[in-house]
Design a protein that fits this description.
17% strand, five-stranded mixed beta sheet, alpha/beta, 181 residues
């Protein structure tokens, strides 16, 4: 794990710890790397409940509740599946928040429609999910590292955005947006 991801994990840890909120992960192509980054921070057991590595579509469907028709129509590498994975992880793991990753890290597996390096990232809760798409292929190892680091940064910004909305609005939750790469 890179140094930047460790720093980001510490910041996430602090916010979840202070707010007494919980987190889970649903990972496909990253195979647990996001969970690994989260638990690298001492005390993660206070807020991290666990992760589901849903490499196969059948696991996305059975454990995360992703609709099989959605996967058939759009494939597992799409924004809608990433969103469903976040919501499904929140339910399955009984957490306040979840982080999800689905994509094609390579070196093979890509198609003209969905080339290698296409990775959808999502984070949030059952009511509000932010998404981001990575599209650059830098080789499998770098693709996985970039996806892990980017989704951690994205989740940190999501949490900070929630706090800003609460400061501005009282207790209401606003929508948090994240730009696509």
């Amino acid at each position: 794990m890179d140094f930047e991801s460790k720093i980001t994990s510490r910041e996430i840890s602090q916010l979840l710890w202070e707010r007494e909120k919980t987190l889970g992960t649903a990972e496909s192509c990253t195979g647990g790397k996001v969970a690994e980054a989260i638990i690298a921070v001492p005390g993660a057991s206070k807020y991290f409940k666990g992760g589901i590595v849903s490499y196969a579509d059948e696991i996305k469907e059975s454990l995360l509740g992703v609709d099989s028709q959605l996967i058939q129509e759009k494939t597992a590498v799409c924004e809608e599946v990433a969103v469903a994975m976040v919501k499904g992880a929140c339910k399955a793991l009984n957490t306040d928040y979840a982080i999800a990753v689905t994509g094609i890290a390579g070196p093979a597996g890509g198609t003209p429609e969905i080339p290698v390096g296409t990775i959808w990232l999502a984070c949030g809760n059952e009511d509000n999910v932010a998404t981001c798409q990575l599209t650059e292929d830098n080789g499998r190892d770098k693709n996985l590292q970039e996806a892990t680091h980017t989704v951690l940064e994205m989740f940190l910004e999501y949490l900070k955005g929630e706090e800003k909305v609460k400061e501005d609005d009282g207790e209401s939750q606003g929508e948090v947006k994240w730009g696509a790469n």
